[in-house]
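Lab notebook, bench 4. The sequencing result for the construct came back, and we need a structural model before the next group meeting so we can plan mutations. Quick request posted to the team channel:

Model the 3D structure of this chain.
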Amino acid sequence: MKKTIFILCAASFFACGGGSKESETKTSGPKRDTASGIAVKTQSVDSNMTEGAFVARYPNGVIKTRGEYHGGKRDGQWTVWYENGQLWSEGFYKKGLREGAATTYYDNGKKETEGSYKKGEPVGKWMFYDSTGAKIKEVNLGKK
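Done. Here's the predicted structure in token form:
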């Protein structure tokens, strides 16, 4: 269960890789995993980014992904938006690994998942919500 949640919740951030300081990427947009209903986002990007700010945009100019690289690894806050500009996910990295709070949202703005990471692994309490914002599940993944 822990591994499944990690894979599904982290997909938004692992899918947003390197590139130039401002990069156009091709993406199919958020899709739902049929088994879990959790949103999974995939995209193809250039993997040459090693240092500095990363910004990817949709063809319409709306920012898709924003974050920072330090020493060739993600570091600090990373944020992803839907093509309509609505927030899709936000979370933090430390030396390339997920660290701290992570949240994903439905395209209607309602919270979808909320939890925390420590050294790249999901930990503590994870909350799951339906598209109306009602809590549907709570999972405890152990120590924070």
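The longest strand covers residues 97-105.
Will bring this to the meeting.
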